[in-house]
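Suppose you are handed a protein chain with no further information: no name, no annotation, nothing but its sequence. What can you learn? This example shows the usual starting point.
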Amino acid sequence: MKSKKSAPLPVLEKGQLWQTKTARVEIMEIGKLLAHYRYFTDGQKRVSTTLTRVRLIQEHLHVNCGKLIKNDRLKARP
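A reasonable first move is to predict its three-dimensional structure. Written in structure tokens, the prediction is:
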């Protein structure tokens, strides 16, 4: 019997911006179990920050083929 080996879940860090099939997900804060994130759909300018488990966000990004993109909103501070 063969066991199915799934792809690893994405590693989340503060400030990441992920593009999925339907929306963008920006990671605001990350902890051991919980994460603050913003979920943008087309045309939205203001979005509230939501708190949920890290594992749920990782699974959502995995299932919806999330790709890490450059976040221009965050600039490196000296």
